[in-house]
Amino acid sequence: xxxxxxxxxxxxxxxxxxxxxxxxxxxxxxxxxxxxxxxxxxxxxxxxxxxxxxxxxxxxxxxxxxxxxxxxxxxxxxxxxxxxxxxxxxxxxxxxxxxxxxxxxxxxxxxxxxxxxxxxxxxx
Length: 124
Description:
Layout (H helix, E strand, L loop, with lengths): L1 H9 L34 H11 L20 H11 L3 H10 L1 H7 L17
Helix pairs in contact: 1-4
């Protein structure tokens, strides 16, 4: 995992990254040329399903996460990410965060180290 994170950080602007899931998402989402009403992370899309359904007048439910927990802070992927990332060098994590900062802002994610990751940061 550590070697992959280092490779990812070292090749941030490279076309060598074969899997689009691990690239900066804002580059592939056609923003600002796209017209989006919502950009909702999969981890908590089911929480917004009723609101979206009502606003766009449809009975189609959002897919939601594959995890059993509806609380994104307790989903298996979040718990693994928090555990694995906490074992990494803090400078590497800061570097990755700076690379993917636009994605974090787009998806309204908090930083890895925030206790409510991946939920959005709220002003007090």
